[in-house]
Amino acid sequence: MASIHPRHILQGAQAGAFALPVCDHYSGVEERMKKSLALQAEMTEEFGTCVFDVTLDCEDGAPVGGEGEHALLVTELALAAALEARVAVRVHPVDHAAFDADVATIARRAGQRLTHLMVPKVESVADVQRAVAALDAAGAHSLPLHVLIESPAAVHRAFDIAAHPRVQSLSFGLMDFVSAHGGAIPADGMSVAGQFSHPLVLRAKLAIASACHAHGKVPSHCVVTEFKDLQALQQAAKTASRELGYTRMWSIHPDQIRPILAAFAPSRSEVDTAAALIDSAIAAGWAPVQFEGRLHDRASYRYYWQVLERAHHTGLPLPDAMRPYFNEPVAARH
Question: Which of 36, 138, 253, 296 is deepest in the core (most CB within 10 A)?
Fold first, then answer.
């Protein structure tokens, strides 16, 4: 194996967009949160890697007046999760009365167990700075932030928000974005069909994805509320991945997880081609090579390495030569 990892050889702003599992699963009710964590453990064993994050939800999960108790609940669940689990928490917005208490309780006690903190309704860099200050006050100085972009003004500021060093990912909040237009976008804009056809919604999605790729952050696509229509969900996920530049997507029902994984995964032929090309590049010391009748250099190597990253994050088995780069035992997965 080459002494320098391909990830370091092929550095670039775009690399960060493939740094997380492609699915982020949200739940806020105690029973469902526990089931989500159990399902994550089962699928981690099945795939040999953690293929989705579990985000425990305070914003929609906490009953009015019971925000403090709910923050304690998600803290205990995070602390009790398996060591290999990927667990995050969505807190209340920075202007909500419960925000400071959320962060103080959750980040102070469980910050070392969390993969990130999701902050909804972020409108500006000032909101990000407010969240960072709260995390730092709680002692969670290195905990990444994920932010939810939910208004036209926030979309306008997406590039500045994505540039903040503590921000790891931007998500698009479809429902609030449509509502923020005061009826100018019809209700169909929140549907699985309308969210890919209404010009203002599509423009917002593209702006968020572009902002993330400009700064090496992860663009996370919004929910599909028609959770029983799994074929429509998978098509939405495929469109988000293949046409809009998203590398991650929200799930709000356990049945949505596998279709999202399948939609964001590269094909077997794409993985085999990527592995063969990267192997040739390593053998050539990363100099340009001819491969299948085409000339390739580090620009295309970077793309094909990202195919392998995406394969890994969707639980696809990698060719033997590539597995050590992802800390996978050779021939250990089936």
Answer: 36
Model pLDDT for residues 26-71, shown as the tens digit of each residue? 999 999 999 999 999 999 999 988 999 999 999 999 999 999 999 9
Residue type, 171: S
Contact (CB, 8 A) for 110 and 81:
no
Residue type, position 186, single letter = P
How far is the C-alpha of 306 from the C-alpha of 300, rounded, in Å? 10
Evaluate if pTM is beyond 0.85.
Answer: yes
Instruction: Tell which residue, 95, 169, 92, has the closest CA to residue 130.
Output: 95
Angle at which helices 298-313 and 268-283 cross, to 10° = 130
Q: Which residues lie across from 219 on neighbouring strands?
A: 170
- Residue 159's alpha-carbon distances to 51, 149, 212, in angstroms, are 28, 11, 7
Residue type, 306: Q
- Say if strands 294-296 and 289-291 run parallel, antiparallel, or are unpaired: antiparallel
Backbone angles phi, psi at 169, to 5 degrees: -155, 145
Token look-up 């980040």 returns 107
One-letter amino acid of 280: S
Neighbouring C-beta atoms of residue 287, cutoff 10 Å: 9
Helices (H), 215-290: 230-242, 257-264, 268-283
The first and second tokens of residue 146, run together, are: 């994920």
3-state percent breakdown (helix, strand, coil) of the chain, nearest 5: 50, 15, 35
Q: What value does the CA radius of gyration of the chain take, rounded to a whole number of Å?
A: 20
